Amino acid sequence: MIPLSIVLALALIGGGAWASVALVNSLFGGPQPESVLPGSSLAYAKVDLKPTGRQWASYAQFYERLPDTVQDDLGSAEEDFGRELFEEMYPDLGLDYDTEVEPWLGQRVGLAVWSGPEDELVFAVALAVEDEELAEETLVRIQSQDDSLFFEVVDGFAVLSDSQTALNDRRAQVERVGTLEDNETFSADLDEIGEGVATVWADYGAMAQDPTAAAEFDLDDLSEVGEISGRFAAVVRVESEYLEFQADVFDAGVDGETLFSESVPAGGITALHDLPDNSVVALGGDGLDAVAQEIWEANRESIESAPDYADIDAMLREIGLRLPADFHKLLGTQTALGITDLAGLDFFFGTDDPSFELRLTGADSDLWSELLAPSDYSYGSTPTVTTDGDTTVVSMGTAGTGRLGDDPVFQQTMAGLGEAHLALYADLRVVAEMEEDPWPQQWGGLGGALQFHEGGSASLNLRWVPSPG
Question: Is pLDDT above 60 for 430?
Answer without folding.
Answer: yes
